[in-house]
Design goal:
The complex is a heterodimer of chains A (439) and B (326). Chain A is of the alpha/beta class and 439 residues long. Helix content of chain A is 37%, strand content 19%. A two-stranded antiparallel sheet of chain B has the order 1-2. Chain B has a single domain, classed as ABC transporter involved in vitamin B12 uptake, BtuC (Orthogonal Bundle). The chains are: A alpha/beta (439), B mainly alpha (326).
Chain lengths: 439, 326
């Protein structure tokens, strides 16, 4: 008996230790309610008086940082809309203000369904926004679908949610199957002579699915994939891969995985002076710390969901023949900076865009009826500061088909390395420069 | 066993089952979806805590990574439903059986360990299985598997499917509590408790400790397997990080110790209290991010001052309760 107690005592100490990991600085000042029976939620009034948007956020746990950005973006949108009197609903003949209710999902799937069921049945949310990450979104989608509530999915890039028969879930992010296809488009448009591509990627689920999709896309576009190889996570020596690349003599290298391996890979390609037109890697180039490798970072490109430099303008929309909706990129960046004190990343932009797209759909539908708003989303073709948005109607219903990844490139201005958006052409802030220009 | 079956009408079991049953029928009667979701989680906690109680409470083996069986059962059942379209009920039972078999095989090795060594070995098992599933392509690797929404049509739509999951969880909670009671009242249970008090003495007394421990471990793995199957069916997707979440293991231990390990009512009371404490801490801005740390401190204090938990303490102090509370 005593022995058990000693073991338990040790474990409880360990438990306190474990708990420290999950502790996050609680800097959130936004008034939100929590998921317990005793929690007081925003009293919901009749639909005509306000529009209630419900979502779960990861205030604690591993998605804390990303989720907070997303919520910040959403709150800025709500503030802007309410400052103008709300969303105009034609059926009611007036503007209706927006409010929200949110609960903490602790970055774990266990409570997501509980939260969304509560949002729908008790708080009477009119519309929903997804939690952060694909896994949590998939759990929430079942509840949203069951009650026929429209849910805008932001922060969820997986394709696999969208061929599951959901009719009410709409994705804002470019799905992972198209993460690097814009790199292929960029290569073909800007370097028409390029014919051969090497795809070298990290052997992890995400990088692998991206690499597979990129390979078939490149082949479909008539490029020759001369090398298609995976390296193990944690690889620090890419010599053998670079030797193989040099032997195959490609025009472009596409691939990567996460930050550390991508950075090392880029560095070693530079040291070996590999002659290529384009180097495009996942994750690493989009992170500001990538600049620490100096010259090796120059002219490296990488995909990102959105960047503050992106030039999605009214003129670009006009060229495409679609409507521009909401603030311009400059307005969004300026307002976000004023409110939160730092430049927004793509998570924040995604949060704002989620609100914006709902607003557009409600205005188009002229009603708060879920099915009508769903139809409006289905037929939507709109340019926003976040990019061009359109949703698939076929097998992958609700999947994003309009939005493109922007491709950023590290360029030099005044001796400083700086990220520039080089793709898509409609949103570019600078022209792409061939990688081998740097030698 | 015959004696214990007679005991099924014992008042100390009946009132407990009655409370669970009453709690479980509130949501369908009031048709409250929010309540259903809340009570579903509580029932899940009860079932998990009571399963852990068999190996932790009665036998005295601290299975720290016990959540591994929840994950395995979840994966087995999910894969059966996903690839072969098998109905939830047989898939759930299959999940439980696979867990029991795995527990038997693993038990052959780890049940030779005692005390902290056993606890650490079980953490290792959980992490190893998680790493394995992460690399199994056909199970979706780290991205996991996602149900097609159409799968719920076989159950009369997603609404009915979720209700089915709810009822099954309620039945399971009742079954686990009942089996806890039967074990405690049986010769088998006495054997387990003698192992808990002094394993060497138990061997000398002629108890086949190896067989007893193995059986207890299998039983305590069987039920979490089924709980996992029901939960992930309702959840619609399964991924390794959620299926093998060590934090949930800790929660299970906390509930058992809080309520009183080795008692029948303990895991039930522990689950209710834990859910309550957690809820209170989460709405409190000061403790919001610290609820696990607070739980850890409570656990520490409990072990130091009230090692027998709430129920154990009450039984000790209030003589009359001993007749009505097991």
């Amino acid at each position: 008996m005593k022995k058990i107690l000693v073991v338990l005592l040790l474990l409880s100490v360990l438990l306190v230790g474990c708990a420290q990991q999950t502790v996050q600085p609680s800097a959130t000042s936004t008034p939100t309610t929590q998921t317990t029976p005793s929690a007081t939620s925003t009293p919901s009034t009749s639909a005509a008086e306000k529009i209630l948007i419900g979502f779960s956020e990861s205030k604690t746990g591993k998605f804390n940082a990303e989720s907070k950005e997303q919520t910040n973006g959403f709150l800025l949108w709500m503030e802007n809309v309410n400052a103008e009197g709300g969303i105009y609903v034609k059926d009611l003949g007036k503007k209706v203000k927006v409010s929200y209710t949110s609960y903490d999902d602790e970055s774990s799937g266990e409570r997501v369904q509980q939260i969304y069921a509560k949002l729908i049945s008790e708080d009477k949310a009119d519309f929903l926004i997804s939690p952060y990450s694909s896994g949590l979104t998939a759990s929430a989608a079942i509840i949203a679908e069951q009650y026929g509530k429209v849910m805008v999915a932001t922060g969820a890039a997986s394709d696999s949610i969208f061929n599951k028969g959901y009719q009410h879930v709409f994705q804002l992010y470019t799905p992972s199957s198209r993460y690097l296809t814009s790199a292929v488009d960029l290569l073909q448009t800007k370097f028409p002579d390029a014919k051969k591509v090497a795809i070298v990627y990290e052997n992890s689920k995400f990088a692998k699915s991206v690499a597979q999709a990129t390979k078939s896309y490149a082949e479909e576009k008539g490029l020759e994939v001369v090398l298609y190889e995976a390296y193990e996570p944690g690889t620090t020596d890419f010599t053998s891969f670079i030797n193989k690349i040099q032997a195959a003599n490609p025009d472009a290298i596409i691939g990567g995985g996460h930050f550390a391996d991508g950075e090392t890979f880029a560095k070693q390609i530079f040291e070996k002076k590999v002659k290529i037109k384009l180097l495009s890697l996942l994750v690493a180039p989009a992170v500001p710390e990538f600049a620490e490798i100096g010259d090796a970072a120059l002219y490296v490109t990488g995909p990102s969901q959105w960047e503050p430099q992106a030039k999605y303008t009214k003129e670009a929309a006009q060229k495409m023949g679609v409507e521009f909706f909401g603030p311009t990129v400059e307005e969004f960046v300026k307002e976000y900076k004023a409110k939160y004190g730092y430049e927004p990343g793509y998570h924040a932009a995604g949060g704002y865009a989620a609100g914006l797209i709902l607003q557009k759909a409600i205005e188009d539908a002229g009603t708060l009826d879920s099915e009508k708003v769903r139809e409006a989303l289905e037929n939507m073709k709109v340019m926003t500061f976040f990019g061009y948005l359109e949703f698939e109607k076929g097998e992958y219903y609700g999947r994003q088909i309009g939005h493109d990844m922007v491709v950023i490139q590290w360029q030099e201005s005044d001796g400083q390395l700086k990220k520039e958006v080089v793709w898509p052409e409609t949103g570019a802030s600078s022209q792409v420069i061939a990688y081998d220009e740097k030698y | 066993m015959k004696d214990s079956l007679k005991n099924l009408t014992d008042v100390s079991l009946l009132w407990l089952l009655a409370i669970i049953a009453v709690m479980a029928v509130i949501p369908p009667i009031t048709n409250s979806i929010t309540m259903r979701e809340d009570i579903f989680l509580i029932l899940q906690y009860i079932a998990l805590a009571a399963s852990l109680n068999i190996i932790l409470g009665f036998t005295g083996y601290v299975s720290f990574g016990h959540i591994v069986y929840y994950g395995i059962g979840g994966y087995v059942a999910f894969a059966l439903m996903y690839f072969y379209g098998i109905h939830l009920i047989p898939a759930m039972i299959a999940g439980g059986i696979v867990c029991a078999i795995i527990a038997y095989l693993l038990g052959e090795a780890v049940l030779r360990l005692r005390g902290a060594y056993f606890a650490i070995a079980t953490i290792g098992i959980n992490e190893a299985v998680k790493a394995l599933v992460n690399n199994l392509e056909f199970l979706g690797g780290s991205a996991g598997l996602f149900f097609n929404f159409k799968i719920y049509q076989n159950y009369g739509g997603a609404g009915n499917a979720i209700w089915l999951a709810y009822y099954l969880m309620a039945i399971l909670a009742i079954v686990v509590i009942t089996s806890n009671y039967l074990i405690k009242k049986s010769k088998f249970g006495l054997g387990l408790m003698s192992i808990r008090e002094d394993e060497d003495a138990a061997i000398v007394l002629g108890i086949d400790t190896k067989k007893y421990k193995s059986l207890a471990y299998m039983l305590s793995a069987f039920f979490p397997g089924m709980v996992g199957a029901i939960f992930f069916f309702k959840n619609g997707n399964i991924e390794p990080v959620n299926a093998f979440h060590l934090l949930k293991s800790i929660e299970m231990i906390f509930m058992v110790v809080l309520g009183g390990f080795g008692t029948v009512t303990g895991p039930f009371v522990g689950s209710l209290l834990y859910e309550r404490i957690r809820g209170l801490l989460l709405v409190n801005p000061l403790f919001k991010d610290l609820h696990m740390a607070v739980a850890g401190i409570i656990l520490l204090l409990l072990i130091l001052f009230v090692p027998s938990g709430v129920i154990g303490y009450l039984r000790d102090k209030v003589a009359i309760l001993r007749r009505y509370v097991e």
